[in-house]
Write a structure and sequence with these properties.
Blueprint: E1 9-15, H1 22-25, H2 35-50, E2 58-69, E3 78-89, E4 92-101, E5 104-117, H3 118-127
Antiparallel strand pairs: 1-3, 2-5, 3-4, 4-5
Length: 131
């Protein structure tokens, strides 16, 4: 892994479709952006920030998310998540994350990811099937 710079930013966007609504994701009964989808977008933004620093088989996995979903977003509106690296402790990377729609902030929080080697990590996970 290349040295990760504090302050590095990443982003990810989507336009809310029926498949991202709480009623269709199973996280509620309303036709608004589902909280799990907002969190997914925040994680995607964090992955985007780290992309230039990864080498070979390196990747990251999310290990912690602390997020507040503070405003609803209807179908058809664009949502953008931003992630900024706030700390690096060995293979653990911390972020400040936010999400906004076209009217303003809809979510904020903190997120942690951990650097792993893809093949080794996947093999370890699949080994659980033989237990």
């Amino acid at each position: 892994m290349k040295e990760i710079t504090i302050g590095t930013k990443g982003s990810a966007s989507l336009t809310v479709t029926a498949s991202e609504l709480a009623v269709n994701v199973g996280s509620g009964s309303l036709e608004v952006l589902a909280t799990p989808v907002m969190i997914m977008l925040m994680e995607k933004a964090a992955c985007s920030a780290l992309e230039p620093f990864l080498e070979g088989d390196e990747t990251t996995v999310g290990t912690q998310m602390n997020a507040d979903h503070v405003a609803a977003t209807p179908q058809g509106m664009k949502v953008t998540a931003q992630a900024e690296v706030t700390a690096v402790n060995g293979r653990e990377i911390s972020f400040c994350v936010t999400a906004s729609d076209e009217c303003g902030e809809i979510g904020r929080g903190t997120h942690k990811r951990f650097l792993v080697f893809g093949e080794r990590f996947t093999q370890k996970a699949k080994a659980k099937l033989t237990r």
